[in-house]
Amino acid sequence: MVVLVARKQGVTGPGMVLRSLFFNLAYGLWTGAMHIVCLPLLLGPARWTHAAATLWIDVTLWLLKNVVGLDHRIVGAENLPDRPAIFAAKHQSAWETLFLSRYLNFPAFILKRELLQIPLFGWFIRKAGMIAVDRSAGANALRQMSRQASEVFDQGRSILIFPEGTRVAPGEHRHYHPGVAALYTQLKVPVVPVALNSGLFWARKAFVKKPGTIVVEILPPIPPGLDRKGLMKELESRIETAAVALARTADSGYRKQR
Prior knowledge:
The protein is an alpha/beta fold. It has helices at about 1-10, 15-35, 45-70, 95-105, 120-125, 140-155, 180-185, 230-250, and strands at about 70-75, 85-90, 110, 130-135, 160, 190-195, 210-220.
């Protein structure tokens, strides 16, 4: 499946490599500069950090579009709820961590606690109000996550979780972790599945970023009321079915070489 898409899009050429080199350098310098310049914002409220993150993400997406030729489009925007919800998304790339933060108005990500220990970056995500989980803590980790999630909802914010727990290449999927079911049954709010095909263009640990159009599909919400087993089965079925379809019908039209 992925091979067929790659053939449609063409072989990586020197122009693509050069554009990726320029983007990676610009992205690295921009990110480093923002982390340093925005350090004083850590002394203020979280909304200051969110405002800085908005600028950082917008410039990054602009660089992707105008340097690499990588754009995006949304399918199913009408499925977005008008109140806080749990968003459960496919995770193929670093791209969606940027885009979904911005598009969903900075939900609280469920992430591993080790990320908080990264100098500068960890300080900002802590200030942004993310939910850090100690994966080695077992049941205690779920209880801690649930407690923090309740606080997030009290603040009027949504939650974003990657049920597979890590980035997974297009055409593959891993076991869905039960954390999303724990939140669903406790908070009694809808779970909104999100499928995408970002890994076809910005693959995990890949130097080259490929031009094209990433598609993000917001699927109909799963209303509260299912048991945990039912929720997990329905969630995985919806996301994986949509992700396979997006990979098959990827907007492979690479923009013309500039």
